[in-house]
Amino acid sequence: MTVLDRIANMTRSVSQAEQYEKCPEQYRLRRIERVTPRPAAWSNQGTAFHESCEAYERSGRAMSSEEAVEIYSATYTALTNEALDKESNLTRWMTAGNVDGETDMVNRHTLGRSQVARYVEWARENGPVIWKAPDGTPGLELHVKAEIGGVPVQGYIDQLTEEPDHSVRVRDLKTGSTRSKFQLKTYTILTRKVFNVVVKKADWYMGKTGGLSRALDVSTVREEEVGEVFAAMDAGVKAGNFPARPGWGCRFCDVSHACSFS
Asked: Distance between the two ends of the chain, CA-based, in angstroms?
């Protein structure tokens, strides 16, 4: 089986669909040519933040803020060291704003620690109820998979919380500003299909503000509208259709160094 055959028949995800929609050539470089992406400290920050919040929630919120913050530091440091082993030239690292790679790396370690501490404080004060599946599995970093519009789709849902009316809310945790309504809509459909529950609302916990976004009404979201996106992406990949879409977004592309169009 060729790489293209494998990619053509793999389970789809939100990241795949959004990457293909943004620039099919980027999709090809990352997933078929397997170009090594340029590292970014913001990626390590996001992963470490998620691991810390998950650990805190799995402790039944018994973990101290200091313990959660230390989990962040340990995870962030390990991920950063691993990335440095692969790319030690910090001028090749992607950064946000007019800062160099080393400064960005240090800043995000500090920022992430404060974001974890604020999450712990927020969770204790607001006490959202983490939903549990019938088998007792908590709604934390749940891996779910189902067909949407005839296309196999999978996702990892950060949190599912229980509403007062016993419906389930989809929640995504963010350390930055980028938010995807398509992601929440996809996770809404997956949650309904996998767990046979009612999902009316979805939102983001924003690490930058230390609180929730305005809730997104997903009560009217249907499988057909989400499935259209995955079907179009799936058909394009299987047809080997990877046109480049150069433009402003190229500056944020982690494989632009291997692209002849950027």
From this structure: 31
Amino acid at 72: Y
Residue type, 165: D
Nearest to 151 by CA among 259, 5, 16: 16
**Across-strand partners of 155?**
144
Rounded Cα distance, 67 and 73, in Å: 10
pLDDT in tens, 79-99: 999 999 999 999 999 998 889
Helix (H, G, I), strand (E, B) or coil at 99: coil
- Residue-wise pLDDT tens digits, 148-197: 999 999 999 999 999 999 999 999 999 998 899 999 999 999 999 999 99
Integer Cα distance of 184 and 14 in angstroms: 9
d(CA 78, CA 94): 18
